[in-house]
Amino acid sequence: MAEENTASVGENTEAGDTEDSVMQQEAEEESKHRLSADMYYEYEDLCSRPSITPDSEIPENLLHLSHSFSYDSGRRSNLQLLDDTTLIFIAGNLLVLLDISTKEQRYLRSCSGGGIGSITTHPSKQYFVAAEKGNQPNIIVYEYPSLRPHRILRGGTERAYSFVDFNHDGSLLASVGSAPDYMLTLWNWRQEEVMLSCKAISQEVYRVSFSPYNPGLLTSSGSGHIKFWKMASTFTGLKLQGLMGHFGKMAATDIEGYVELPDGKVVSGTDWGNLLLWDGNAIKVEICRKEGRTCHAGMVQPFALEDGQLMTIGSDGVVRGWDFESIDAADSNSESSRFEMEPMNEMVVGHNVCLSSVTRSSLPDSFIWFAQDSSGAIWKLDLSFTYTTPDPECLFSFHSGPIQGLDVSKKSYLMATTALDRSVKVFDFLAKRELTTSRFNQGGTALSWAPPLVNQSGGLLVTGFEDGVVRLLELYDPQRLHVVAGRSPKGDAKLRLKQAFKPHNAPVTAVAYERNGDILATGSSDCTVFFFTVGEKYNPIGFVQVPGPVQGLEWSPHSHGENRLLILCQSGHVVEVHSPDPDAQKPTKTFKLPELPGRSFRFRSIKSRIKREEEIARRQAAKEKKRKEREERLKESKQPEEQEEEEEEEEELPPIYIPDPPSPLYCGFYSQPGQFWLSMGGFDSGFLYHCKFSENQDEDPDERQDEPFDFLPVHNTDDDPIRSVTFSSDRQLLLCGMHSGSVRVYLLQPADHSLTSMQAYWALSVHDNQYGHLRHIRCSHDDHFVLTAGDDGNIFSFSLLPPEELQKSLQRRRAKVPSPRVGLENEVLAQDIEDPAAYSIETAKQKLEKDRLRREAELKITGKRKKLAELQKKFKELLNHNQSLPEHVRLTPVELQLDRRFHEQAERVKSQWVMEVRKQLGWEEERSCVGLSKLQDWFRDSLEANMVTVVAIRTDHRLSTYRLPTLAKPSADLRRQSTSSRPDRDRDAAPERRKSRAEPAKDSVIVEEEEVLHPKVARPAAVKLGDRQMERLRKAAEKAEQARAKIEKRKQEWAQLYAEKPDQNCEDPRDVQAIREAKENIGDLKLKSDKDFTVPKHLRMNAERKRAELIGLEENIREKQTEMNRRIVALRDSKVRLVSQLHAQAQQLHKVQQRLAVHLHRPPPALPTVLPEETPERRLQYSRATLERYRVLREQSFKGVQQEEQEGSTRLLEQLEKEMKEEEEKKDDEERGEEETSVEEGVELSELEEELLREEEIRLLHEQDSLLEQMDTSMCQFDTELLLLRHQKLRLDWQLKLADLHQLTLYQELLLLKEFERREDSLQEKLNGRIKEENSITSKLEECSEQLELKQRDIAKLQEREKALITAFQASLGENNKCEEFLTKVFKKKIKRVKKKEQTGDEEEEADSDEDSDEDDDWDDDDFDSGSEEGGAALDDSVCPPGCDPELFENTLQLRERRLDLEELLVEEKKSAEALKKECDTLAKKEKTVKNNRKTVEDDLELVNREKQQKMNELDVVVPLRLHQIEFVVNDSVPSDLSPALVLDRTELGRLQERIKQLQVEKNQQRDLYFQARQQHVKLIHDRKDMDTKIQVLDKQCNELMLMKYGRLVDVEALQTLSGNRTLEELKQEKLQREAAYAKEIKQWDAKVEEAHQALMDVTKCNTERLLSVTNLFDQKKELDHKLNARQKKMGRQFQDYRRRMDQEEIRRLQALVKTQSQQAEALRREIGLLSRKGGHVLPPSYAPLPPLAPLPTPADRKQGPARPSKLLKAQNSPSRHGAI
Question: Which of 521, 658, 493 is nearest to 577 (CA)?
Fold first, then answer.
């Protein structure tokens, strides 16, 4: 056995060694396959190279990249930072490394030649990644700064990569592909291995990234989606699991950027400018700014989480920082899913800036970021957000979007470009720098550099724009201008507008100069070509209409005999027109040139026919080849040609296809006169088509179908057509710009117009292969450079010479900027056309022609109207003449009417005109009404009343009302009531709910059980009561009612007394109020400025209360101002009445003075007038006459000199007001101009008349004096009232100014409170939620406790009922029941009962187990087994045993059923109680937790209130003080700094000093009161003890009296309120009747009992006699025994033993008989005693009679055997049984 173990151990050791060796080999192989860290690839072996036609002599380095002048700013994430000075970005097929400081560029070409999809940098900045595009593209990892390829990742996608990114530590790389696979791949890039790979989604993916906080989480986003990824371990290995984000009810949006948060949430941007907070895969909340404003205008991208704030950029050019904690804890309200907040920091980068991506500086703790601007710029941003933060710096500026125009100077190394970004740029491509940039209101669409024939200096540019404007721009060197004093020109070049004109209404697509430089042609997408004369000023010649939008213009070269223009249209039309004659007669109505000769061509596709012919030729060649092979085989075999080969079925030839719509035309050029080459796109790409104009030009150009007469196939261009073509100056190089962004160069033979030598080519991918269509390619003036511009926004320059040779040949050359023209600095800048809706040249001419026609029509209309006026005048004269004739000769109106239909027609026309005029003026009328209402609202209705100024009569004092704006209704949110009381209401409502729930419902089973235990006695029929009984019932009811009323009154008195009785812990409200005031005002009170100051709850201030306080103050101010205005207006009204009264008195005085002599006249006082400012409301009052006068003045002004509308209306109003004043003065003069009567002089009067005149004079003088005195008194009184009111208003002004200062303070506090409102509201909302939750839990706990208490009560009741049931059972058994033990076992027997509702499964088993356990607990103390009796026999409870009462047995079974019911109820109640107890414990724990949470929230709220109070303490309050009020003096002078001073109210200070004395007096008073209260308290305690003793004595006496009267304690009130009960009386009557019947029956039974007693006595006597005889016999027996004993000595031994045994048995029998009889006698005595106590006559129970005494046996009897005594007993028992019956 030991040997076997040793062998097995050896085998295991060998197997282990083998496994180790295998693992070592695998590890060695794996280590061999693992890539070393220092392994690199050769860049030259990887980078893409030009493609050259095989066997051609074209050199590989035909073109050398010189410089890149652009930046593809529209590409996503196209900016990365390698180090502090080097930026990297993609430019077409190049990777550009740009040095920020030196602006030098280094380039890396795409390795696939298909372009670069995305770039990123390693976190360590030691590597950067270029993810390429093409067929099965690779990811190249370059090392920096050596730029050597370090790793190549293969097989990640099919066509292109859209985004790549490293994880946080740089160990993994994530890439996502574009269409068609959208593959998401995770790479172990150091080993060039794919870790995980799966399809991301079937939509474009913009970005994918690792979470910086959890390396196993990723996020991707893109077109209308966001997806959350997780690297999960499954049983098959590591897998990528993606979860798509659900937008829910929100509209789906493209997500450009997002940021992962530390807790796993993600914040993403949207199209509309808000942020989305994602929790899981659902939107938790949408984040916006206050009042629903968006976070950014347009697209928003979060990009970083820095220093507690989330940074976002937007297409509005703004960088904002948001509070991270607020975003992380953001939650929406129930109404909306939005969360409103404001940014913490903000930086506006610039206008017209669209930020799309940012990258951070590599320096540690740096706040420098570099931003990609989609508008064509790179910015440097400092996001430290401090006071010293510098402004954003624009490092580089480029074109944005496709390059629309490019041309080069014909004299220097200058290049000009334009794009839709509204800029024109000029570059020096020799020095590789930008010279100047000019910006305009619209984007540029075409550009051409004027040839030297037009501008000798070579500085004129013609640029077309998208609004149809053509601008002539002069390029000059500002350094060569004559410098004006104090001004120095800047820059090396500058563009100046020379002329601007608008020939088109759509974008200008082409401009071209005629070969002699005399005419400029412009083409547009509006299907027109305009011609201009070239000169100092360009003048329009005219335009021609073409069949389609213009694609290009080309003038015929000098080699052609005629000067013609070739117009290429995008729709495939080609039009050739002759050059217009500038000196020809120009049409006056339009610029259209109708008679300009020309011819047209419409391209018809021939590609399908070419393909068909190629297929036919191929098949023919294949057949010919097969035929030759067959002939050769026949020759070799030398057999006759008898065998025929089966002809193969040929496939159907490709059909002839004509594309619809036609293929677009891209470019074209002349070959020979009347012939031209075309390059088509779409279906017809792949060929150059040689075309010519047909001789038949009569057809409609749109209906023509012209086919090329020749074609030239272009290699590998079926899907890559030629977009642009240019030739070198010697036409030996044909340069083609391709649709795929590549450059092709063909070598041509001289004078090869048919392009027969266009075979070999050189091609290089330059621009982006997908969207970088190369539409512009040019050669420099000396053919040393080639310049390209594409739709990807990139501009490249290439040199035809190697850099070394180019440097040598051009070392002394440089680009020359033209010198400015002489006098340029003094010329006025040409007027530009800035309005995009400005008229074009043709539209303006058409408008002038329409204006001329309109003027002619108006002149004709005026002439017609003049003739009509003359005819109307003649007709009126005829009517007047007719009226002057006699009536019998006069013509009637009907006779004068020529035709009734004329009048009807005129009326119809008039009504139609009226309706049309109303319709035309409807909008104007509505506008005028709206304008009037707005003016009224602004100038009149905006004020509550006009400003009234009251002027004193004799002084210059003035009094003006306050200018009160109309009171706007306060918003609803200012008036809303606080909802803070809701928790209290909930708390108040909770007890009601608990009360309603706590009402116990009586259990139906319990009711049923009570009915079983206490069955109702069935009542017999009603018994008729007698009159006395009825009267007794009535009196008893009255007495009970009186007692009940008395008791109720006593209860009310007691209730009132108890209500007035204070609680034992109750305190006097006055004392409570005094204590609260003392706590608030006495002791160590914290100042509001103290850090530990706690604001009391009733003094806490929030924005709502402060707003209410501010509104209250505003209302108070307004009330004061309104009251003062009312008083001033009342004073004004009194002045108006006074003026009218004074005028009346002045008239009366005038009348009096007319009757007095002149020397007796006293001068009247100057009468006051009501000034216009005192009654401003009259300015808006007008009458019909006023309006009519205004109309007349307005018409007069129109007839006069034309003036400005506003000035004229103002003057009209002033003139109208002046005339109204003059009319009023005239009225006054007319009233005063009454004839004055004077006393006639020189007439002699009698003495009586003189006396009467003297009396009259005295009376008039008195009346004159009275009137003057009244007038003077009235004016003085008015001035006094005005002066008094003025003083009051000044005092009110002072108060209002203080109120304004207070209002300013309140507003500052309101602004401060608003800042805290959000935090406070959120905390208050949380607190209310906690309080509500606590109240809910408390109410549930109380409810549960009440239910538990009720359950416990129910359990106690059930237990009591169970005890009562057992007692009832024992009572039913009675005493000495021989079946008691059996019935007890039956009663306590456990039986398994069938449930009413069957339970299933575990519930049934659980219930059974619980029931069994409870039953076991109940019967643990029992000493018997329920299934068997003591002897082990089974207990049969189905049959009543013999000797047991059947009724008692049935009653026992019923009681057992009741017991079992009670036990089941008890078990259920205990279970319910246990569940309620557990629930109570759970709720108690929850309540404790909720209380802790509430306390935490209250502490947070308290901190916020403290912080808010501290901020409010920092606010400055303005307190105006006079010098005498300042008592803060240092060295007998007021210090300049009063900040440590304390401002107090003097009255308040005096009150406080007086309060000190009052408090001392109050202290003594309180001490005396305390002493008196203490004595009274002791006395009250003694009195209470005495009263308690007295109450106990009285209670004892009452109980004793109650026991004496009633025998027990009863409820006296219940006795007093007992009224007559008819039912009770009926029962009493019935009882009496039954008692009578029962008494009669009892008498009968008494007689029978008496007879039985007598029989019993007889039997007893008989028995007594027998007992006496027995006694005698015993005595005889003793004697005989004595004798026998004496004789026994003589008898034998046998007889003695037998006799002794027989005697002993007989003695025992007799003793048992005596014992039995004594027991029966004792039982009879007890029964007799019991019956005698009850007073009833009940027969005793029938007991078996005692057996008679048997006679002593004789020897003869002994011989008969032992059966004889039993027979004697039977005989004796028979008469006793008979007697008992």
Answer: 521
